[in-house]
Structures are given as C-alpha cells and as structure tokens.
Amino acid sequence: MVFPMIDQTVARWFVKGGTFFLSDHPFLKAVRDLSRQSLYCIIIAMVVLICLHFVLPRRRWFCRPHKPLFVLLSFMVGPVAIVEALKALIGRARPRDLLEFGGHADFTPVWQFAAACTRNCSFPSGEAAGAAAALSLVVLVASPYRAVVAAITAPCLVFIAFNRVLFGAHFLSDVMLGWLLTLLAMALIWRCVEGRSAAIDDFFARDRPSHPSAGAGQP
C-alpha cells in the first residue's frame, strides 16, 4: 500500500514485447493445472473422510475427525469465501489487462476499490490462497514429522502461488495477500477447532441407530 509501484515493477520483469512471455511455458502451465486439480481432489478427499467418520464412527482411521474438518474449513473459508468476496468487492484488473500491457484497464493500487472488472478479478489470488490452504494438510501428518513436511512443501506451495505473477494473471500483492489472508483465517479456524477437538471427535464417535425408528416401541 505504501509502495504501489512495486506491483507494476515486478510485473514488468516478465513482459517482453508487450506480452507476458512465460504465460505459455509448458512446465508453468502444467504446474498451474496440477495445482487446480489438486485443490478439488483435496476438498473431495476431506469430505469423503469426514463422511466415513460419520457413517463408520467406531472404525480406526489414520486421523481424528476434527483434522479433516479443519482442512476442509481452511479451503472453504480462504480460497472460496474470502477470495470470492474480495474479488467482487474490489474489482481490480489483472496485470495482463492493463493499458501498458496491451489491455484496456488502468492500474489501481492494492485494497483500492476499482470496479475495473465484474468477474474473475485480480485481487486476491485464489490459487495463492489455495496453495496457502494446502499447508493445513500438515495436521494429518504425525507430530514428529510435521515441521519437516512443512519445510519441504512450503517452498513448493510458494512457487505455485508466485506462478500466477509469471503469467501476468496477478500482481505480487494479490498473491501475497491471498496467501496471508488465508493463513490468518486458518489460524483462527484452528484455534476454534482445536479448542473443541474433543467434542468434535466425540460427535463422530457416537453410535447411531441404523434408521430413525430404531428402538421405537421397546420397553
């Protein structure tokens, strides 16, 4: 916010001849496709795991049910709720849509209400938020190995987020704030989930009747 020209400066690093020359790079496109597909796979996997805990409560799964719930909430609140709300509210044009890069829109600093687009806007980056939310998966790893797994995966996830800057799809601030807002949301969610973890796990561990009328008419 103090130095808004940083966004334009970083964007220009990846422009040649008026276009973002890395936007068609096969490897970078493959990274983006993999990250987008992984997001949906993670969400589906967490929903399935939660449902299995609910349907088969007494089975021993590899994690307690409050953990996949935390992962699912991290993706729902960060990349979905926060990102989509701010995209519609701010309406910031993407770098590749700016006049200086052959587009039709003017540059607007981060957090400034722009109304430069009505859908699929630049701020914040949904894929950066998704990469940040993927860090929530470390709660599924055994405690002694979490720091190591986080240290290995975090640089990869940062690259996935910054990849959108290389494409001209997002400014640096879009990526950084998409990441940071999601991490903030995850910290708040984990505080709530961890504080109620026993109650959440007990809820999924209860024995349930096979149908609503089970036990009816019994003395």
Instruction: Quickly give the structural class.
Output: mainly alpha
Percent in strands: under 5%
Mean pLDDT: 88
Please mark out the parts with pLDDT under 50 across 5 or more consecutive residues, or reply none.
Answer: 210-219
Summarize the main sheet: 2 strands, antiparallel
Helix content: 55-70%
Annotated CATH architecture: Up-down Bundle
Radius of gyration: 21 Å
Order of helices and strands: HEEHHHHHH
Task: Please tally the β strands and state the result.
Answer: 2
Classified by CATH, the class is Mainly Alpha
Question: What distance lies between the first and last C-alpha atoms, to the nearest angstrom?
Answer: 70 Å
InterPro entries: PAP2/HPO (IPR000326), PAP2/HPO_sf (IPR036938)
Domain Phosphatidic acid phosphatase type 2/haloperoxidase: 67-190
Protein name: NADH:ubiquinone oxidoreductase
Transmembrane segments: 37-56, 68-90, 145-162, 169-190
Describe what is shown at a glance.
The protein contains seven helices and two strands, in the order H-E-E-H-H-H-H-H-H.
Can you put this structure into words, describing what you see?
Keywords: Membrane, Transmembrane, Transmembrane helix. The chain crosses the membrane at residues 37-56, 68-90, 145-162, 169-190. This protein is mainly alpha-helical and 219 residues long. It has a single domain, classed as Vanadium-containing Chloroperoxidase, domain 1. Helices cover 57% and strands 2% of the residues. The protein has seven helices and two strands; from the N terminus they run αββαααααα. Strands 1-2 form a two-stranded antiparallel sheet. α3 packs antiparallel against α6 and α5 (146-166) runs antiparallel to α6. The longest helix has 30 residues, at 26-55. The protein starts with a helix and ends in a 14-residue tail after the last helix. Mean pLDDT is 88; it is low at 210-219.
